[in-house]
Amino acid sequence: MDILVIIVGIWFIALGAYSFYYASSSKKSGDIKAGWIVGKNIQLKNCKDTKGFINAIYQKTIIFAIVDVCGGLGIIIGTLIDFVVIELISMIVLIVFYFWYSSAVKNAEKKYLSPSFKAKATRKL
Q: What are the φ and ψ backbone dihedral angles of 42, each rounded to 5 degrees?
């Protein structure tokens, strides 16, 4: 059972590391890759403001990445020293930040990534 919990901790650390990489590469390139933070069902061609989305979500993604790495380390450390309270607190913090981050991404998607009606109007039928 301990090995499974350690694997979960490592998974959270990897999730945080990739989220940090995704945020910094999106900020540098100005592109959003569908499938990680943004759902694959979002059409990025006719979006209102992709730069605005990146700016709105960048700091939140960095915070989420830091919390994931620290939470994963908390889970691993709690398991290794056999202190369940650390594991429990880490899991609760991870769950709370997951819901906070998901809400922030959904709100930013609605505000910045909804289709631009101006772009649709210029297309010929």
A: -85, 125
pTM (2 d.p.): 0.81
118 three-class SS = helix
**In the predicted structure, residue 64 carries a pLDDT above the cut 80:** yes
Q: Are 57 and 108 in contact (CB under 8 A)?
A: yes
Cβ atoms of 94 and 12 within 8 Å: the answer is yes
Angle between helices 2-29 and 50-80 (to 10 degrees): 160
- Residues of 94-118 as b/e, b for ≥16 C-beta within 10 angstroms? beebeeebeebbeebbeebbeeeee
